[in-house]
Amino acid sequence: MNEEQTRNRIMQARTIVVKVGSSSLTSMQGMLDVDKLNHLVSSLASALELGARIVLVSSGSVAAGLKPLGFTSRPDDSVSRQAAAAVGQGLLMAQYEKSFARYGKRVGQVLMSAQDTMRTSRYRNVRNTINRLLELGAVPIINENDTLVTSEVKFGDNDHLSALVANIVEADALVLLSDVESLYTAPPSDPRARRISFVENAIEQIDDSTISGTGSSVGTGGMITKVDAVRIATASGVPCLLTSAANAGPALMGDAVGTAFSPIRARGSRRRLWIAYASHPQGSIVIDDGAVEAIKTGKPSLLAVGTLGAEGDFSAGAPVWVESADGTKIARGICAFDSDDIVSLAGKNTEQIERFLGSEFARPVIHRDDLVLLGTRAE
Question: Locate the PUA domain: which residues (predicted)?
Fold first, then answer.
């Protein structure tokens, strides 16, 4: 897909996930900038009036809560940031509600944690809630639950969250808005930097060494997190656009602003996309060299005869890593057995399993439909 086709697809998208960063909604002092927010909402309202369904992933709760609590800069400790988020999220949503109301649109707050994407039941509940809000004509406004989330179970940045949301709602496009107008060949401060208007394959064509760094003192992400989000989305069949919040309107209308990213592959099944990008492996299955080579073809299921054992304590139905004997992660999958059973099954062929353990154990450890190779298509 070329640049013109990619931009046309974004312009014609029915369901669009738009992510906006903290720096695009706040002043230099870290306060919520109502003018910036209103400009964003105006751009989104234009797309809504043309029939688009918008899911807004919005940062800004911590930044919005800084001044009301007496902070002059973003605090270093997590507890103070969580307190700022508790105050700022309410202020942020109140302003969104007021701004969207000017265009006759309702908004709905959806605060997510990583746990909501790691477990299939909660993943399904999130999807159903967001889709119902869209059916009712409301704009879902999503943020990570910064008030309560811990570092062990957090997305880390809303760029990653927005890519997962794009998968959850089966979006037709993902638009990432920040304070940077485009992707460049080097940091924009470098006089040799050149704007990149189109990327056909974000996995193969972008070198992380040229996009390191964080653009703002009030945000948590940088260009690397945005490109990582693009990689997830485009590998899932979703075209992307990266540009500044000031260009939100032109971006949604298909104008040649920012950097457009072509989808690398066709959209995969929702279940396999969850396994590949949203599941949280609870342990590992270690496999021998023969099984590694077989799994890499992307065709067979993982059988007990190719397993060496299990690491971690998990139950049947849990997402797990599939690793080689040297610890290299090969794939993710949904295991059909408890970790204790894997130890008993390891290395046995089907005849041995039926003889010693019973026919109910003579099935794949991970069925090929539940097995996704790392760095490959989740189809």
Answer: 283-366
Of 12, 9, 19, 5, nearest in space to 174 by CA: 19
List all residues 6 or more positions away from 352 whose beta carbon is below 8 Å from its beta carbon: none
Q: Tell me, what's the pLDDT at 38?
A: 96
Strand 259-261 to strand 240-244: parallel, antiparallel, or no bridges (unpaired)? antiparallel
Confidence check: pLDDT of 152 > 70:
no
Q: Is 179 annotated as a binding residue?
A: yes
- Is 19 labeled as ligand-binding? yes
User: Residue 359, class by beta-carbon neighbours within 10 Å (0-12 exposed, 13-18 middle, 19+ buried)?
Assistant: exposed
- State the angle between helix axes of 158-168 and 223-235 in degrees (0 to 180), rounded to the nearest 10: 10
Q: Annotated binding residue at 340?
A: no
Confirm whether residue 225 is marked as ligand binding.
yes
- Cα separations (Å) of 240 from 28, 120, 229? 28, 26, 9
Taking the CA atoms of 185, 187, 190 and 195 in sequence, report the sign of the dihedral they define: positive
* 222 annotated as a binding-site residue: yes
Contact criterion met (CB below 8 Å) for 312 and 339? yes
Q: pLDDT by residue (tens digit) across 197-218?
A: 999 988 788 765 455 544 444 4
* Helix H or strand E segment including 183: strand 183-184
The reply to whether 279 sits in an annotated binding site is no
| Domains of the chain, each with CATH number or no CATH | 3-273 (3.40.1160.10), 281-373 (2.30.130.10)
Alpha-carbon gap, residue 32 to 58, rounded angstroms: 12
The verdict on whether residue 349 carries a ligand-binding annotation is: no
DSSP conformation letters of 331-353: EEEE-SS-HHHHHHHTT--HHHH
User: How do residues 84-116 score in pLDDT, each as one tens digit?
Assistant: 889 989 999 999 999 999 999 999 999 987 667
pLDDT band at 155 (very low <50, low <70, confident <90, very high): low
What does residue 196 show for φ and ψ, rounded to 5 degrees?
Answer: -105, 120
